[in-house]
Amino acid sequence: MLQGPYGNLDRDRPLFRLPFTAFIMGTVLLPLTALIVCLFISLMYHFEDATNTHCQVSNYLPSISAAIGYIPERYIWRTCIGLHSAPRYMVSIAYFNFYHGHFTRKLPELLLSGLALVSNLAENTGLVLLTYVSSNETYNLHKYGFIIFLASSLLHMLITCRLWYVIKRHGMSPEETRSYRWKLRLFVFNVSCCLAAAYFFRRHNKYCETGVYTLFAFFEYLVVLSNMAFHLTAFWDFGSKDVILGTVSEDKRY
Questions:
Q1: Whole-model pTM?
Q2: pLDDT band at 216 (very low <50, low <70, confident <90, very high)
Q3: How far apart are CA 111 and CA 109, in angstroms?
Q4: Cα–chain center distance at 140
Q5: How far is residue 206's CA from residue 223's CA, in Å, rounded to a whole number?
Q6: pLDDT digits (tens, 9 = 90+) for 88-105
Q7: CA distances for 114 relative to 1, 93, 109, 120, 132, angstroms
Q8: Which residues contact 214 (CB under 8 A, 6 or more apart)?
Q9: ω into residue 19 within 30 of 0, thus cis?
């Protein structure tokens, strides 16, 4: 539950209180740390297997799917994504409530808010699916999880930028303005990296050129990193809030 620093929950015996800034930093650092560790282990100990493709040409970086497909990388990635998924669902609900408060009487924006919620939940669910179903185990299901993650991510970013554009017309705080500008930049950067990754992936499969899969992997990293950075802009959106775990007082149970 999100609450301002002087909310009424102070009277409801909060069991746990954490600044949202620390909450979102921890949520983003979990997959970021897992990605860095998995890539490092794959390059150091599983280089030949992780960079091998059907083309049998030299490559120098593993794709993310390959980097998280071996042991212990698989368990490191699954642990961190599993731990970060519940907070991500919570943040999705928090954003929906945030938009609902801004667009109470605006039906188009309310509908977009609902679609933003659905796409955000689908993005996180797709990430969990591709995480717990390795490409080495069931490739097709892993592929569908990746498609759900990527498509939902792009849709969520697009809708978010649109909603913040509407909010901007009615005035923003300096923190909200900074957040909106970074959302736009990261969305454009993410789309550009997606297009570059798709190009190099197709080129690799068509021509089997040395090093092209490495370029695909590099842009795939940038897609994921820019996605993390986009979600990190919640640091500014809810910077004055706390995440609280509390119990309901006796007089509110009935």
A1: 0.90
A2: very high
A3: 5
A4: 22
A5: 22
A6: 999 999 999 999 988 888
A7: 19, 10, 9, 10, 27
A8: 51, 59, 60, 61
A9: no
For residue 204, give every residue at least 6 positions away whose Cβ sits within 8 Å of its Cβ, in sequence order, or none: 53, 55, 212, 213, 216
- Here the tokens at position 232 are 């990190």
Beta pairing, strands 2-3 & 242-246: antiparallel
Across the beta sheet with 2-3, the strand order is 2-3, 242-246, 14-19
| Identity of residue 175 | E
